[in-house]
Amino acid sequence: MNYDLVIIGAGPAGLSFACSLRNSGLNIAVIEKQSRQLLADPPIDGRDIALTHLSRKLMQQQGIWGRIDPGEISPIQRAEVIDGDSPYTLAFDTPSDNTDALGFLISNFRIRKAIFEEFDSLETVTLIDNTEVSRVSTDDRGVTVTLASGDPIKASMIVAADTRFSASRRQMGISSDAHDFGRTAIVCWMEHQQSHHQTAFECFHYERTLAVLPMSGNLSSIVITAATDQAETILDMKQTSFNQDIEKRLNGRLGTMKQKGKRYPYPLVGVHANRFFTRRFALIGDAAVGMHPVTAHGFNLGLSGQDLLADEMSTAISQGRDFWHPTVLARYQQQHMLSTRPLYHGTNSIVSLFTNDSLPATLLRKAVLRLSNNLPPVKWVITQKLMAKNQVKLKLPALLDRYTRVA
Ligand SMILES: Cc1cc2nc3c(=O)[nH]c(=O)nc-3n(C[C@H](O)[C@H](O)[C@H](O)COP(=O)(O)OP(=O)(O)OC[C@H]3O[C@@H](n4cnc5c(N)ncnc54)[C@H](O)[C@@H]3O)c2cc1C
Known about the structure:
This protein is α+β, with helices and mostly antiparallel strands. It is built from twelve helices and 20 strands. It is globular. Flavin-adenine dinucleotide binds at residues 8-14, 31-34, 47, 49-50, 108, 132-133, 161-163, 167, 185, 187, 223, 266, 285-286, 293, 296-300, 302.
């Protein structure tokens, strides 16, 4: 089988990348371990995704946003960061300039369903489902993707969107910076007595963090992160004790709380690839950068990264250049790393500052909250990251033309 491009992984990054290339003229195959049926009707996984304005714009452009019932899109109008039992909060409000929200919360299974519907309407892509990639290799003439069955697929280029533990990334010799936080996120939905008024809460308690994100009506998405050796205890807690515990950690802000559905565990490992491409091979989504969920950037970065790569490849095609050329891929890497590096390391620093109970860390945490609250530029920078609607695109052709060496 021969294609122009093989995408490994039909998660949100892989599928939206295929959608972004719909007018490129490329003959594309997407290879996925899971079945088409599971992709078309993904089960609830307890994950709710906070989306930025840029993500909304990209999803609108791709025809994905319109496939989600507006009643399932919950605007986040205010965010409060709470430090332990201190009454002091760092608060972010939606600016009063006709902006509708700081961001938007949508359940992961609904986003995945909408992306798959859009992907499934494309005529230029082939989905090879129920199929695992076991090996990838590239040379100057093209690429070979070997399936678990032993069958080879030939193409001009591979784009890997095969999770933060990407096997193809390792096979291609791309190193990464990985950080095992030794912590697990436990997510679920909870109904509450009082309205959340579209407010997201991030509560940093001593041994745990608790994020409460507003869904439709009096329902919130709960994300607890705790040391992995405590995760089982939290997962096994009786429902009444669990309800009371969350109510207490929120200082009764939302009145009585009641869990709805199941609790789901996610062990937390952050990964940042040290480069996003090598010969005829590029990384997108979590395979490029897998973030800790506390700053809610993983999916957003995946979406903006695939858009940058698709844009560079489409430009090359329209100018009659090779879409897999190292210059094209280097341009993508340069632009994407501009956002991923600071966000990845910044998020990891926030996690260590807010989960460290030593006296210096506690004092520094209090100072950071007060500084952020009282210094308008700090708040502005954080709010802009959520609300910026356009990609930051660099114009560095001369520099990049020399940057074509492939490791
Ligand atoms: C609790 C939690 C909360 C989160 N909240 C947010 C949030 O609020 N905002 C945000 O922006 N992000 C959030 N994220 C992050 C977000 O969920 C991920 O960044 C996103 O789902 C990654 O998408 P992806 O397509 O890159 O990878 P994945 O969704 O992991 O998809 C990868 C696909 O590749 C397939 N695959 C892997 N290997 C192979 C192979 N060898 N052959 C064939 N197929 C293969 C897999 O089956 C899978 O379908 C959260 C994450 C968690 C855990």
